[in-house]
Amino acid sequence: SGRKIIVTSGPTHEPxxxxxxxxxxxxxxxxxxxxxxxxxxxxxxxxxxxxxxxxDPLGVxxxxxxxxxxxxxxxxxxxxADAAVMVAxxxxxxxxxxxxxxxxxxxxxxxxxxxxxxxxxILANVGHHAMRPQLVIGxxxxxxxxxxxxxxxxxxxxxxxxxANDVSPATGTFGGDNNLVHLIxxxxxxxxxxxxxxxVAERLAASGAEDSGGxxxxxxxxxxxxxxxxxxxxxxxxPGLVAGMLFYSLRDRxx
Length: 255
Ligand code: CTP
Fold this sequence. Notes:
Elements: E1 4-9, E2 14-17, E3 20-22, H1 29-40, E4 44-49, E5 61-64, H2 68-78, E6 83-86, E7 93-95, E8 116-118, H3 122-127, E9 135-142, H4 146-156, E10 161-166, E11 178-179, E12 181-185, E13 188-191, E14 195-196, H5 197-209, H6 212-224, H7 234-254
Helix pairs in contact: 1-5, 5-6, 6-7
The structure holds cytidine-5'-triphosphate.
Residues 8, 68, 86-90, 92, 119, 121-123, 138-141, 153, 157 line the site of cytidine-5'-triphosphate.
């Protein structure tokens, strides 16, 4: 408890002109629920939220931003921290420039072409940061091959856990109150039952963010699961054990 934890939540809005923007479908419900659950456990939670229609969670310090670049700057300004949970649905692209005035229709000339450029990846930045928090948790929003694609993100974004969720329209995840997730770490994959977003948040918070004692326990539990449950077999088991041991020794040193 008392540990400083950064949480990102909600979408980002990337302006095209003063009246239009590019965004992702995200209500902020899951990220805000995680911030609230961590605060309830006594953590010092710093929420960086994109534009959402829900209130700030109780007991949480909130920075409100619009764009991905603003979100990255706000997150970096909060480092160092003990843990980071990146739940925001960040827009991957923005237009190269935002028009200063409303772009008008031009009869006979067709639709405008908007050159796009990539936004910074906030989770990958934090995962590779010189001040990387001890525990970095990302989300993965997928519509197909959910676990397989989420595993790739675990590596490329250098995080400890990925919470993979299926956001295909039939699941009703975006904007809805429930979530079906898989918790992925070096040790393997845990399939969680369908839960409310609040229950997912509480389970995740209890899993490790409160203090490293919880984390060590979680890693230990995952490392101890028979390898037959993991598609990757034995290879997956050893990184889990190593991670578990690492956490135990880190915990002892940090106290
Ligand atoms: N993320 C981020 N910054 C971005 C894009 C994503 O911090 N510019 C974070 C999200 O908060 C989430 C994780 O990265 O924790 C995965 O996001 P997701 O949208 O699933 O994946 P992308 O990296 O955008 O990859 P793709 O769109 O190809 O699936």
